Amino acid sequence: MSTSTRARRGARGFRRLHVLACATSLAGFGWAAPALAQDGNLQNSTTSQPAAPQPAVPSTANTTTASEAGQPQDAATAQDVSQGNSAEGPGEDIVVVGLRGSLQRNLDLKRTSSGVVDVISAEDIGKFPDSNVAASLQRLPGVSIQRNGSRGEPTGITVRGFGGDFNTTLYDGRRISTATGGRQIDFSTVGVDFIGQLSVLKTPDVSLASSSIGATVDIAFPKPFDHPGFRVAATGSGSIQDRSGKIVPTGGLLISSTNKDETFGVLADVIYTKRDTDTNRVYVSGWPGGNYAPCQLAGFTGTCTPTADTNSAAYATASNRQNLPGWFPQQYGAEQQRVQDERVDARIALQYHPSDDLMLTIDNNFSRQKITQENYAFGVWFSQGSLRNVTLDSNGTATDFTQTGTPTDFTAALNKQILQTNQTGMNVKYDATSNLTLEGDVAYAKSWLNPGNVIGSANGDIGYGNALSNNLRFSVLGDSKDAFPTISGYGPAGNAAGWADQSLIGSHVTVNQTQHNTDELVQFRGNATWKQDNVTLKAGGQYYQDTFNFRNQSTFTNNFWQAYAGYGAPSGSTTGISPLPSSLYQGSVSLNDFIPGFKGSLPPSVFVFSPIAYQNYLTGLGNPSATRVPGFNYGNVNGFTGTFDEAVDPGSVLRVRERTWSLYFSANFKTEIGNLPFTFNAGIRNEVTNLVATGQGRLPTSITTSTADPTLLSIPTYTAVQGVTNNSSYSYLLPSLDAKLELTDNLILRVDASRTLTRPSLSLLNPVLNVGNGQRVGALSASGGNPNLKPYLADNFDLGAEWYYRRNSYLAVNFFLKNVSNFIVGGVTRQAINGLIDPTTGTLASFAVSQQVNGPDATVRGVELALQQVFGDTGFGFQANATFVNTNRPYDSTNISQTGFAVTGLANSANFVGFYDKGGFQFRTAVNWRDKYLLQFGQNQNTGSFGSEPTFVNQSFQIDLTTSYDISKNFSVFGEALNVNNNQQSTHGRYSNQLLDVFDYGRRYTVGARYRF
């Protein structure tokens, strides 16, 4: 294509752009004057040429024409008079590149948007500001992150207090499939190196989506015509976590090229990422609530027989009656988790642009993440009725107690999770006239969790118990933010010196389990956009079908997990193998100073051994069904032939097909009110959804005790499996209004109102009750779904002001309010199932049944504050934001009813990024703080009598450092230090001294280089 032809195309595209983004143009052509006025020492920096071209149209506007889609997305949005990181364009234009150029583009897009939008854009092709998508998003006001405890990686976001499924993530405006079981994306599965832009829409664009009460996150990937010509970007780095001590690589390559006539382009990239992390964890699996008998409390010296059975003889003695509410730790232990996270991301995009009026884009996105985790741990199990000498604090938490007959387990696990996703899409944009653009988009995506013959978790559990059980003492030393519990009296028969005596250790349970999911998504979208003068009209429709399949298989289902339970002869048992071969032991992990900075003491160590070698050893003992194998758990385990094969749990099988039809219309007007520029955008979206959920139901017909282990129960028989199908549907009208008034050239007032929805997680829609085989004494549990769940609905209101007081600087305040109805409550009720008798009590078995229902309403309100300041030509600047939120439905810890409810995810947060960016050198310090918040209802062990117990996340404070230096125009080096203050993640239950988890995932250092051409 000739220079004159390209110029004509650019001129035509710019004229069309002017109608839609006049404010951005003014920022590009008119901002230099006030900037110069404030920075008098820079007046000689002006040039005689026009400013560099703006990017086509903000992707958040979702109104790009075919002609605009073919315009280059230039590295700078406008002329900047500073002499910092800059590059000369045609006619010796001086434009900002690097971090400050990226920040200015973000402000331009935010300012010109009709709704409340925040944007993060790449500094250049192949150079995104952060190494993780969620880490970038947390720099935005109102956005905070959730970290994976064992990896320390940001995996999810919360926007204005709403996390997980409340936020919709799109790839180039398309929904993506995820086989994790929810609707949210795991952001650690997204390769960040070659992302072009992240947009967070806090108010909805009805032509894009209205299915998020929190926000819609649109991830835009680069395309060939964003940067015409031949482009290459490559990155390579090595990182090390301070505890793992192993350097692991990351590398990526992007190649983009357009032909000479600029009618065809191709872009391809691939990224390989690896992270190794060793994390120390201390845990309590749950703090279930129940009732103590007075005889269990400290100071009682008589006979104690706790009971709630009014017909029993023991109930006649008042001190035996269980009538004192309180909480206890179900299981306590510590483990080291050694995690390897490997990810491959690949993308190819083809664009055909035969004329200004037509653009065809075909792309394919692929990702595959494999997480391999080795765990080495110890654990001790408690039962409320077995506790003695109990001290309850004023809240009813057991802060000190003893338990006789406590077994000790050492565990090793090899966990694997493979998450693979592939999405293919085609988009066509056609400018039918100078005013009318037609667009069609189709995409198909599929995601797999653990495809093939993967064993998700292979577990080996050894230890001692029965005759070698101990009189264990458990003590809570303080708050969960800086203390974990202490145990004493440990060791075989209470001999601490024999804690790790291999001659006394025998086999216990062996659990293999795997979750297999698929999520298949088909979607179509078509719309027409009419632009004329200061009016833009858009109408269209969308259809998607999401088909989710869920299946769990384990050795719980066939009861093979108890094949060699019992610990062996040293523990006084006829089942179990002891001693185990010394060759199985591969060393140990010291528990001394295990969580630096936390009070509390632990036993000396945990064993390192391979669960695969352990299982192979037990398999090598022979086939118990064909020959007598000493130590096998005869009478409790049937059909075992020597191998720990998994069996599908019928109650876990679920298929959900969700179809949604949407029609939408929006109108955008630009006018004046009293000579003040005014933009008004009104839209409406109608969504009709049909759901078909199919499961497999069965009920247990008996419960038996285990002769090998007094803490275990089995369900040997069930009723026949029956398929259960449920149909449901719903329809909602979702309006949206956005108004923007420019009070001055630099001051904008915004008012927004909308209705949005969030659909229930697909995994909650199972139409059957599932009673698993792996039950424990005193902890009978079951779970059930609800296929008739309706979406959460929210009426949202925003009022904000933005002051762009100088170039690359602004101050903003935004008040928001959300009235949310149809909250889904995951309650726990105690109930009998199929008339079963508990063999340990002789009474009707009481199961803790977890189920979900649509319930109460709630209001969430808050304010976001944001400030960005660049100090002239010094290269220094900062970004700061804070969010303050509250609700009329906070958590009430004194409510012990089955229907307790509160809004999850709400927490005040603040972020600060200070930076220096000049002369090719860049340095950033990021400080992120989030206050304590309610994460969810439910704990790892949730078998109590007071409903679904909560999980709170303690406040966190983390500091990250990044730096880079441009050695030449095309080559740069960079470094990164994450979590330099060694922030630790901790959680607690109903009260702050009920520690659930503390993770110490350490610091990570990265050094690398980038090449761009």
UniProtKB/TrEMBL annotation:
PANTHER family: PLUG DOMAIN-CONTAINING PROTEIN (PTHR40980), TONB-DEPENDENT RECEPTOR-LIKE BETA-BARREL DOMAIN-CONTAINING PROTEIN (PTHR40980:SF3). SUPFAM superfamilies: Porins. This is TonB-dependent receptor. Pfam families: Plug, TonB_dep_Rec_b-barrel. Residues 1-37 form the signal peptide. Residues 110-214 form the TonB-dependent receptor plug domain. Residues 461-980 form the TonB-dependent receptor-like beta-barrel domain. It comes from Sphingomonas kyungheensis. Residues 42-92 are annotated as: Disordered. The keyword Cell division does not apply. It is found in: Cell outer membrane. The lineage of its organism: Bacteria, Pseudomonadati, Pseudomonadota, Alphaproteobacteria, Sphingomonadales. It is a multi-pass membrane protein. NCBIfam families: TonB-Xanth-Caul. Keywords: Cell outer membrane, Membrane, Receptor, Signal, TonB box, Transmembrane, Transmembrane beta strand, Transport.
